[in-house]
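Board notes (copied after class):
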Amino acid sequence: LLGRPRVTRVAFGDLVGGGPGPDAIETRSFALGSDEFGRDVAARLLAGGRVSLAVAGWTVLLIALVALPLGAAAGSAPPAVDRLVLRVLEGLQSFPRLFLLLGLAAIVRPGVVSIVLILGLTGWIPMARLVRAEVRALRNRDFVLAARAAGAGRLRIVLRHLLPNALAPALIEASLAAASAIVSEAALSFLGFGLQPPAASWGNMIADGRSTLSGGWWVAFFPGAALALTAIAFNLIGEGLRDRLDPRASPAAPSALDSLSAPRSVLHGPSHAP
């Protein structure tokens, strides 16, 4: 069914978009093969990766813009207000996120902007709770009490002392949120609520490959592998950041006092006098 092509005359937009037709491109002419419409899987894989990384980046930025100020405000608020905010966050987090994503995606028009807004406005709660807990742990530290004794106001203490010291765990959470955003975008596209064909997305590429698994396994395999490897990479980045930025996660180095108090051997080897 596939004809012999002249690959050098096929435009990149035709490969990523609708394609020149099922008889125009041969599967073995491309490194990762072509799909049932003759579109280059490798080209669409790169285009889908660009979409996934863009969605992850903008989603994490939106999450940070919402979660950082709300978490810092809740952590520095009086105990009654903090308990109220915590109960609201717990109530919002109790809703299943997948059903919430599907409900919002069915209302708005599919697109990159709408997906970023949906993922960002439903994924800021874990980072907000993390920042709130970190701010509450820091607000009674000596440097905060010294700033308060020096006459610094609550806003200055939050912006100059509390929030900068809470950025390390927030940065770790951001890398995990990026992996979650990539997987969620692929899930929405796979179910038909994300980017619509002929736009390339790893999710709709996997969905398109379901009908050709027996004779064209590569159509769904390579987008699935790229999705899994990218999610694992972001999680490994988060683990590395935690080990590097969180001193409680890494073993403490021995101090000079420990080395002085360690028992020393009194045995010496035989000396060879000249």
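Comment from the instructor: The longest helix spans residues 41-76. DSSP finds twelve helices and no strands in the chain.
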